[in-house]
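Kindly inspect this one:
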Amino acid sequence: MRSTTTITALSALAMLTGPRPFVSPSDRLQAPDACSLLTVQQVSAALGTTVESGKLLIASNPRSCGWAPAGGPKIGGKKVTLTLISVQSFETGKKPVQGIEKSALSGVGDDAVYITTPPFDTALNVKKGNSAFQIRVGGFKTEEEKAIEKALAPQVLARM
């Protein structure tokens, strides 16, 4: 039973991010750096604690960045993750999936949706023009995480 739940959760997570097109090394050189879209000061203010500079989640991929207090991210600890996604992934993420709650958010970008995937909590996916991103906050209760994600999203949009 537990393995079925784990497989279901992982499958749902894969469906949220949608298909990933091949990214050549030259495309990566031109890809925006997610770490450049939020400052240490912005993330520290949003989390209410000092964080270190953003770090790429995968050294060779500038599309995902994470911020956390000194010592790195901890399970259940305060943190922010920003991932640049394709518009196709954004649209795929909006499709209904059993067991995953999705709720639209107005006033942020051209389109925005909160996606709650147990046990992974909630993320905010935002689309503006031909760009999209996902922002995920950890270390707070769900409603607080949503409020912080909503507050950080316009700051990301301003630098895209």
Observations:
- The longest strand covers residues 131-138.
- The mean pLDDT is 83.
